Fold this sequence. Notes:
Number of helices: 23
Distance between the termini: 42 Å
Shape: flat
Strand content: 5-15%
CATH superfamily of the largest domain: Reverse transcriptase/Diguanylate cyclase domain
Radius of gyration: 30 Å
CATH architecture of the largest domain: 2-Layer Sandwich
Structural class: alpha/beta
Number of domains: 5
CATH class of the largest domain: Alpha Beta
Strand order of the largest sheet: 2-1-3-4-5
Amino acid sequence: MFNVMIVDDEPIIRFGLKSSIDWKKENLKLIGDYSNGQQALDAMEREGRVDILITDIKMPVMDGITLMKKALVVNPKLKIVLVSSYNEFEYVREGLTHGAVDYILKPTLEPETFLKTVHKCVDKIEKEQKMDRKLEYAQQSNVAAIRRRVEQEMKRILLKKHDEVKSESVVSMFEEPHAIVLLKLKGMDRVDEDFGFLYNSLIFEEIQERFYLETDEGICFLISDSELLFFLKKSSDPLTLTTMIKEKIERETSIGIIYGYDVVHDVQDLVKGYYRAHSACGRYFFHSEKEIFRYRPDIAQDVPALSEQELEGCLLPYEESRSEKFIEERFGVWSSENMKPSVIKKEAGNILKTIFMKKIDPPVLMEKIAIIEASDTLEEVRKSTLEGLKACAQLLVNGENKPHMDNELLDKALHYIHAHYTEELTLQNVADHIHISRNYFSILFKRLMDQNFIDYVIELRVKKAKALLRQTSLKVYEVAANAGFNDVKYFSKLFKKVTGQSPGDYRLNHEQ
């Protein structure tokens, strides 16, 4: 049960606040109501702990802002709600800056709104208490301290590729076999394009935080912005352990993740184990219908790409149906997993280059090849190659002015972006609107704007957020929503990264 105190110099307001909530039902204890800040401060010293302070701003003897500042010195975790009139918003702003949770307006005070505000304070207290308990446990736990140290030591070993592991804590950990599970984001470039550069690391940091809160064994750390690594004692089949991780993550996020795993029996094989898990993730290129992969040492992947002369012999003179048949035949070869993904993509690009190098504008051809190289799966390579073949062939037939068409497409896209950037907006949305493929639109936008699509959208959204912070009194989460950001935590981090200031600091520094 949390203790609540009400302070207001108007008896009718105090009565209204006291009677509008069933305090016992809400598991709250109203320990007193007072007519000025000094009385309340004295009562705090007598009564002891106060969790929620509801105070008027304008009062005799001691006003609410002064009371708030003094009370927070005594109890920094005190949750404060300001009660104000319409003409006191400058004081409200000062109070919010110094740590008030929220404010309510006397002229429009409704019991439901007041109760929601009190619930907001309770939620904050409960979350802080929960976090305090977890932090206290972590600080007291020798196991957690050792785990963090081992995590850092293992990260240094893997990044520096040490052949011989000498760290005593790491060596002792691997006295028993461990499953090593590597998580990689599906389509990392696409995630960057759709959500921005901070999104990847934020997702993995949240997964890591949950893992440490839920388990006492194993370690987990980011190896890069797009890779998260787990080491778990091999208490059961590694596939079972990996599936368990996957199911937990899927309950928290819908983002696509690839899981590659292996077993490390000897600490000296730590680096090899990491690269084996990395190799296992690479199998997703050939098997995009799956998400979990175990390392397979029997995959050769050493067949070279066809030479320029071999491609010319098979593809020239150009005939569309023969070229399509050739691509399908090569797809069969590529599917054998005897060629590396990078080699496959290079050969697919060379097919278009062999046929069209001297027949269409080089920039247009290079865009088609770039789409192939950006493919994450073999099926995407096949699809992009066939689509590139048809698109290039169509240019030969109709002889349209491609640069002119591209500029028209971009103008149409920009008009749509500016009309909808405060809503949910993705590359796919805009590409569908102008009737071209997502990959082609991404490349087209970057070539003509010299900027990634998502960077352009974020720039517009941040500009909108700046205007809202300067010109309105909307709360930060409301600013985020109205500027097109549906995650206020992500918005705050991104805003500070872009502007060098938090949204609150920006508002204070740009008051009109």
